[in-house]
Amino acid sequence: MIREYRTAYTDAVLDIWLEASIKAHDFIAPEFWKxxxxxxxxxxxxxxxxxxxxxxxxxxxxxxxxxxxxxxxFVSPIEQGCGxxxxxxxxxxxxxxxxxxxxxxxxxxxxxxxxxxxxxIVREQVDEHTGNQEYFMRLA
Length: 140
Prior knowledge:
By secondary structure, the chain is α+β, with helices and mostly antiparallel strands. It has five helices and seven strands; from the N terminus they run E-H-H-H-E-E-E-H-E-H-E-E. The strands form two sheets. Strands 1-2-3-4 form a four-stranded antiparallel beta sheet, sandwiched between helices. Strand 3 and strand 4 form a beta hairpin.
């Protein structure tokens, strides 16, 4: 079940974000992601509209919108492949039908997921935080 984010979910959301970020972005040092937890908690989550996927009262995934941008979508690594990401994406599309996002070029699994969900690659750009190449994508 998908619910609006509440501060009671913060620790679980941050844990999922960190674990999934390190797993999905093995081309970036884990220390970078660990150094961003405070910013995620204090800046990004409060500035975004966030929804969580709950299973038995436990947060298993979440997504965050910042204006028309899908700023984050993460599923706990142990829950990946069970359809949670698709449910979160469907919900996000209902909130913002003209979604866009950025994804690291090296993150082929996520690129494949986004393409399967109706996104198209618009351009390539450089992530200002890491210097890595990324794709800017939007719903086709």
